[in-house]
Amino acid sequence: MLITTDKRTNPIPLPMPWGWYHVLYSHELEAGQSTPLTYFDQELVAFRTESGVARVVDAYCPHMGAHLGYGIRDQAGGGSSVVGESIVCPFHGWAFNGEGQCTDIPYAKNMPPRVARGEQVLGCWQVRELNGSILVWYHPHGVEPLFEPTQIDELLDDADKWGEPARFNWDIGTHMEEIGENAVDPAHFKFVHGTDDVPDADVLEFDGYHRRGFLRTRNTTPQGIVDGTIENMNFGPGLAVVRFKGLVDTVLIANVTPITSQLTRAHYTFIQPKPVNEMMARFGKALVDNICQQMAEDKIIWDRKKYYAKPLLCDGDGPFAKFRKWYGQFLVE
């Protein structure tokens, strides 16, 4: 993983956008396991109940402030213990369910009034689990979810059709909007990534919480020029799906999550059909390697660039104004 600090010399004056965000891959959290998280400029804890339900709660026990993500004794080196449907505080054994209710105080004879009334005493987060991800809903005002995350069709296909997923993470020292603008910036492909030409944008659509773009590409290969397409779709600011067709069909599931307003974690998962021969396997790996190289190149720019609310644009630039208007709906102080 590439690590970047969030101490920018040019802080970007934008709040964290609201939406659904990836915080863990499903396989990273087993039943009865808990783990600490840092997202949305907050300390959180994810745990999976013994029945298999993923939960996310605030990190600090409301009793005396212990962090629920770090166990002791037989849990040392891992998260706090999970018993049944609740996570157990390592400090005094208080237990809390995924709704933030205290379910047990093992040494109390008389429960505190709020606990006795079944009130929520620990902050909890809306969670959805699909596409192999654990997603949480973030809104700075505590607003209930305004839309639902989208199931990716390819992940419902017969598993025998697809090879093993390839996953990569980057910590990027910039606001999420700067990363998202790449999707409407075809000109940078030639100058940052060294493509032969500027891709043609056939479709650029902004519809509610969704966005879609469609580009045509020309790829130079030992067998000659191969025409291809790139379809990129956003479902809110946190989830993008990019479908590459041409040389090797590839689906990129690009989850981006704010650690702070100035620091973003990108989680990329690539899936490709099982290769029919060694040559196609090499082409598939080369495509993934090339996209990862492009991320490294973009990261040099993103980590250091200055944000302009009104950039100086020319007629060959992409529809930055339309993108920022669409993206602006997710930005709430």
Automatic annotation (TrEMBL):
It holds the Pfam family Rieske. GO terms for biological process: cholesterol metabolic process. It comes from the Bacteria. The keyword Ribonucleoprotein does not apply. Its cofactor is Fe cation. One of its GO terms (cellular component) is membrane. Transmembrane segments: none annotated. Residues 21-113 form the Rieske domain. PROSITE patterns: RIESKE. Keywords: 2Fe-2S, Dioxygenase, Iron, Iron-sulfur, Membrane, Metal-binding, Oxidoreductase, Transmembrane, Transmembrane helix. It is an enzyme of class 1 (oxidoreductase). Its EC number is 1.14.19.21. Its main location: membrane. One of its GO terms (molecular function) is dioxygenase activity. It is found in: Membrane. It catalyses: cholesterol + NADPH + O2 + H(+) = 7-dehydrocholesterol + NADP(+) + 2 H2O; cholesterol + NADH + O2 + H(+) = 7-dehydrocholesterol + NAD(+) + 2 H2O. Pathway: Steroid hormone biosynthesis; dafachronic acid biosynthesis; Hormone biosynthesis. The keyword Transmembrane helix applies. Belongs to the cholesterol 7-desaturase family. This is cholesterol 7-desaturase. It comes from Gammaproteobacteria bacterium LSUCC0057.
